[in-house]
Design a protein that fits this description.
about 80 residues; mainly alpha; rod-shaped
Length: about 80
Amino acid sequence: MTNFVEAGKAAESLTDDGLRKAANFGHPIVPPIVALTEITRRKDMRQRYNKARNKMPEATIKDQILGENPLDGGVMSNV
Protein backbone atom coordinates (compact mmCIF):
# COMPACT_ATOMS: atom_id res chain seq x y z
CA MET A 1 0.00 0.00 0.00
CA THR A 2 1.28 3.45 -0.89
CA ASN A 3 1.12 6.48 1.33
CA PHE A 4 -1.29 9.36 0.72
CA VAL A 5 1.35 11.63 -0.83
CA GLU A 6 2.24 9.04 -3.44
CA ALA A 7 -1.44 8.26 -4.01
CA GLY A 8 -2.18 11.98 -4.48
CA LYS A 9 0.59 12.31 -7.06
CA ALA A 10 -0.74 9.24 -8.88
CA ALA A 11 -4.27 10.68 -8.79
CA GLU A 12 -3.06 13.88 -10.47
CA SER A 13 -1.98 11.86 -13.50
CA LEU A 14 -5.33 10.07 -13.91
CA THR A 15 -7.95 11.33 -16.34
CA ASP A 16 -11.32 12.48 -15.04
CA ASP A 17 -12.84 9.17 -16.10
CA GLY A 18 -10.01 7.29 -14.39
CA LEU A 19 -10.67 9.20 -11.18
CA ARG A 20 -14.38 8.35 -11.32
CA LYS A 21 -13.52 4.68 -11.75
CA ALA A 22 -11.03 4.85 -8.86
CA ALA A 23 -13.65 6.49 -6.65
CA ASN A 24 -16.30 3.88 -7.50
CA PHE A 25 -14.34 0.66 -7.90
CA GLY A 26 -10.96 1.34 -6.33
CA HIS A 27 -7.52 1.54 -7.91
CA PRO A 28 -4.31 -0.31 -7.06
CA ILE A 29 -2.55 2.93 -6.07
CA VAL A 30 -5.32 5.52 -5.58
CA PRO A 31 -7.82 4.81 -2.80
CA PRO A 32 -11.37 6.17 -3.24
CA ILE A 33 -10.88 9.01 -0.71
CA VAL A 34 -7.85 10.29 -2.63
CA ALA A 35 -9.74 10.03 -5.92
CA LEU A 36 -12.66 12.00 -4.46
CA THR A 37 -10.28 14.63 -3.13
CA GLU A 38 -8.68 15.05 -6.57
CA ILE A 39 -12.10 15.23 -8.26
CA THR A 40 -13.11 17.99 -5.83
CA ARG A 41 -9.82 19.84 -6.36
CA ARG A 42 -10.23 19.78 -10.15
CA LYS A 43 -13.86 20.88 -9.90
CA ASP A 44 -12.88 23.85 -7.71
CA MET A 45 -10.02 24.78 -10.04
CA ARG A 46 -12.31 24.72 -13.08
CA GLN A 47 -14.89 26.88 -11.30
CA ARG A 48 -12.25 29.42 -10.27
CA TYR A 49 -10.84 29.47 -13.81
CA ASN A 50 -14.26 30.03 -15.39
CA LYS A 51 -15.11 32.73 -12.86
CA ALA A 52 -11.84 34.56 -13.53
CA ARG A 53 -12.26 34.11 -17.26
CA ASN A 54 -15.72 35.69 -17.19
CA LYS A 55 -14.37 38.71 -15.31
CA MET A 56 -11.62 39.42 -17.86
CA PRO A 57 -12.04 42.70 -19.72
CA GLU A 58 -12.60 42.45 -23.46
CA ALA A 59 -9.82 44.92 -24.22
CA THR A 60 -6.25 44.41 -23.11
CA ILE A 61 -4.66 46.83 -20.69
CA LYS A 62 -2.61 48.27 -23.55
CA ASP A 63 -5.80 48.86 -25.56
CA GLN A 64 -7.44 50.50 -22.55
CA ILE A 65 -4.48 52.86 -22.09
CA LEU A 66 -4.03 53.71 -25.74
CA GLY A 67 -7.70 53.76 -26.63
CA GLU A 68 -9.04 52.19 -29.80
CA ASN A 69 -6.82 54.35 -32.00
CA PRO A 70 -4.04 56.39 -30.37
CA LEU A 71 -4.22 58.93 -33.20
CA ASP A 72 -7.82 59.76 -32.37
CA GLY A 73 -7.12 61.55 -29.09
CA GLY A 74 -6.11 58.71 -26.83
CA VAL A 75 -3.66 59.11 -23.96
CA MET A 76 -0.71 58.96 -26.34
CA SER A 77 -1.99 61.77 -28.61
CA ASN A 78 -0.04 64.35 -26.59
CA VAL A 79 3.27 62.60 -27.22
